Amino acid sequence: MTCRDFTAFIADYLDGELPESARQPFERHLGHCANCTRYLEGYRASMALGKRAFEDHDAPVPNEVPGELIDAILRARRASTD
User: Fold this and answer.
1) What residue spans of the chain are helical by DSSP H?
2) Are 30 and 6 in contact (CB under 8 A)?
3) In this structure, are residues 61 and 70 in contact, taking their beta carbons and an 8 Å threshold?
4) pLDDT in tens, 36-69
5) Phi, psi for 17 (deg, rounded to 5)
6) How far apart are CA 5 and CA 29, in angstroms?
């Protein structure tokens, strides 16, 4: 499995919907590719933050969220309501 293949299967893998025939090569690749391991961790974190964004709009923004990202989201929200 290549890194490109890995990214194509990541959502199904995290949802538990990746067939066994693809899951084994996916996990083997994950076991030896540091870049894809980091990508998977970042993907998981992004998905978790995305889900949290819709849970409680009054909750404080976590400290680990970059200010530039917050600014970009607020600009996009304003642009979509104009």
Assistant:
1) 3-14, 20-32, 34-53, 67-81
2) yes
3) yes
4) 999 999 999 988 888 777 666 667 778 888 888 8
5) -110, 5
6) 10
Whether pTM > 0.70 for this model: the answer is no
| Residue 30 near residue 36, CB atoms below 8 Å | yes
Token digits for 62?
């976590």
Q: Confidence class of residue 9 from pLDDT cuts 50, 70 and 90? A: very high
Which token pair is 42?
């970042």
Cβ atoms of 44 and 11 within 8 Å: the answer is no
Retrieve residue 14's tokens: 């995290």
Give the three-class secondary structure for 19: coil
Distance CA 19, CA 57 (A): 36
